[in-house]
Amino acid sequence: MATEHRRHSGAGPVVERFSRTARWFHAATYVAVLILLVTGWWLLAGREGQPSPLSALTGLPDTTLHTLVGWAFTVLVVAALALADRADLRWFVGWPAAAFTGRFAPHRGRYDPGQRVLNILLPLGLTVLVTTGIGLALLHGGPAFAILDRVHRVATYPVTGLILGHMLVGSGLLPGYRGVWRSMHLGGRLSTGVARRLWPAWTHRTLHEERDGPVDGRVT
């Protein structure tokens, strides 16, 4: 993935964390997930007979909207490959304090250990929701439908928690993550100071390769 390091509007050096393709994919994913969360929780609350704001906006029943967006999200899931790396115990021990101080323990990956675990748990949870959702869309009643419906409902709770946690961290509201939201928005460029704080090895490797060229001929 190509990266870019430059001065940005006089605010100091910046580095491109994600490519335009990655940012658009992320945007499509979170739009689909937010629609699924809103319609899903609306239905889970037993308000199927009352159109949600999204239902009123689109003119589609919540069940139909949830199913259609679910199919679209399935396409996104099939297109995505989740990469999992080893968790860093030291990083996890220091994470609660680092979320507020910004003093994160060093790690070697493109993603910090928290992101790597999220990259495992969230796809697993979403896979359960997508798989059971497909079953619910194809079946019409019966014991299998009841089981799938139950699993789909139960999986909604932890997946919602993971998504809300991801949104909290990604928004930069926690002091330790301040500025991180730029990695996925407004060009995907964030200050090298923020990048070094959160992804020290990746930032060092990226800046080194931009200065001297990739050691093995690859572009990260």
Residue windows where pLDDT falls under 50 for at least 5 positions: 1-11, 82-87, 216-220
Query: Which structural class do you get from the secondary structure elements?
Result: mainly alpha
Please, what is the average pLDDT?
A: 79
Strand order of the largest sheet: 1-2-3
What is the chain-wise order of helices and strands? EEHHHHHHEHH
Largest sheet: 3 strands, antiparallel
Shape: elongated
Radius of gyration: 20 Å
**How far is the first residue's CA from the last residue's CA?**
5 Å
What is the helix tally?
8
Say how many strands there are.
3
Proportion in helices: 55-70%
Task: Describe the protein.
The protein has about 220 residues and is mainly α. Helices cover about 60% and strands about 5% of the residues. It contains eight helices and three strands. It has helices at about 20-45, 55-60, 60-80, 90-100, 115-140, 145-170, 190-200, 200-210, and strands at about 5, 15, 190. The protein has a three-stranded antiparallel beta sheet with strand order 1-2-3. Helix 7 crosses helix 8. It is elongated. The termini are close together. Mean pLDDT is about 80; it is low at about 1-10, about 80-85 and about 215-220.
